[in-house]
Structures are given as structure tokens and as C-alpha cells.
Amino acid sequence: MNPQEKLWAGTFGDDYTQRNRRPPENDRVLFAEVFAQTPTMPWSVLELGAGDGVNLAAIKAIDPEIDTTGIEINEGAFAGLKTVADAAFCCSLLGFRADRKWDMAFTKGVLIHVAPDDLPAAYDTLYQCAARYVLVAEYYNPQPQTIYYRGHADALWKRDFAGELLDRFADLRLIAYDFVYHRDPYPQDDLTWFLMEKRQ
Questions:
Q1: N or C: which end of the chain has fewer CB within 10 A?
Q2: Closest by alpha carbon to 130, among 44, 65, 52?
């Protein structure tokens, strides 16, 4: 494991899971807005870094027929994820390979915690697992920026994740994006989401 994987797999990741519990309605509203922008409904979704499954539970609240899969490195969070997702894997998202694709693969507050040197592998996993849609909901900054985070200098970065994905994969196109303010009626943590589609 690299230093970031060790951090999130251990007690730091346990504490994060407990600290970041939020009303499920906030995430249901966000994903409903995302799905409203998709030309066709994604009936299978994969979340990389799914935590205890709060995002996948929100997606199930939109339509319980959506097939959900989550990948999570922290065993404590994984215990919760298994009760929510249709399928779950306790492993790192880096280098994850599957014998299937999902209509949509996404991250939410995860790429910001991946070290810059490991981002190409994370991007490849996200892209390869998506049959049609790629969604990233992360902190945005036009230039890469390192943020000192809870006593750690190498645990959080802001950058243009979507732009880097679009540059890396020529068949991706941006179809929608939005910012969710922390004072929104259904707040998120000042994140920006970008929905991309593979050209068919």
C-alpha cells in the first residue's frame, strides 16, 4: 500500500467515516440532478471509494432497481457498504479490474485524496469501468493545489480532475457540470460535479 492507502485503510479512515455522516436527502438530490442530465438512465453504477455506502443508498432511493457496486479500502466503512450495495469489494481503487462494465462509474470526494502520481491509475480505473458515463464530484481548482489536511501534508489535493480526464481520453465529452454550495438547501461540501460521456 502507498502512504495514502495506508492512511485511509486505518484509523484515519475510520474517523473520516464517522465524521462525515450527513442527511441522505442531500445526496439523493445531487444524484437526481446528475441523472436528469443523462441522455439515458444509468441502470448500473460503480462508486470508487464508496465509504459506508451513503451515496449508493441515495441512488437506491431514486430507484431501487439501479444496480449498485462499491469499492472501499477501509474495512470499517466496507462493513456498512455491504449492507447497502448490490455488490461490494474491499480493496484499493488503484488497479481495480473487473470482468464487467457499469453504465456509470463515479467518484465523490475521493480523487482529492489520491496522490498526484497515482491519479493516472485512478483515471484509468474510472474510465475502464464505465460503459457510458463518468462522473467526478470533487473539489475543483484550475491549477493543482496541495491542502494541509487534518495534520497531513499529503492527504488532500485540489485540481481540474475532469479536465485531466477529458485530456487523457479522447472519446470522453463533457455533458453537464454544477457547483453545490455548503449553504444550499441540500448542501454538499462546496464540491463541483462533472458528468462526462463516452462517445457512442
A1: C
A2: 44
Strands 44-48 and 67-72: parallel
Beta bridge partners of 177: 194
List the grid coordinates of 174: 463533457
200 pLDDT exceeds 90?
Answer: no
CATH superfamily of 3-198: Vaccinia Virus protein VP39 (3.40.50.150)
| CA nearest to 104, candidates 133, 75, 76 | 133
* Cβ atoms of 160 and 141 closer than 8 Å: yes
Q: Residue 59 and residue 136: Cα distance in Å, rounded?
A: 15
Domain assignments of the chain as residue spans, ordered by start: 3-198
Angle of the 54-62 helix axis to the 24-36 helix axis, nearest 10: 60
Give the DSSP H or E segment for 102: strand 102-108
Q: Do the strands 172-180 and 191-198 form a parallel or antiparallel pair, or are they unpaired?
A: antiparallel
Which pLDDT band, with edges at 50, 70 and 90, does 86 fall under?
Answer: very high
Q: Binning pLDDT at 50, 70 and 90, where does residue 11 land?
A: confident
**pLDDT tens digits for 55-82?**
999 999 999 999 999 999 999 999 999 9
Q: Which three cell numbers stand for residue 133?
A: 458515463
pLDDT-based confidence at 141, cuts 50/70/90? very high
The rounded distance, in Å, linking the Cα atoms of 87 and 58 is 16
Burial 2-38 (b: 16+ CB within 10 A, else e): eebbebbbeebbeebbeeeeeeeebbbbbbeebbeeb
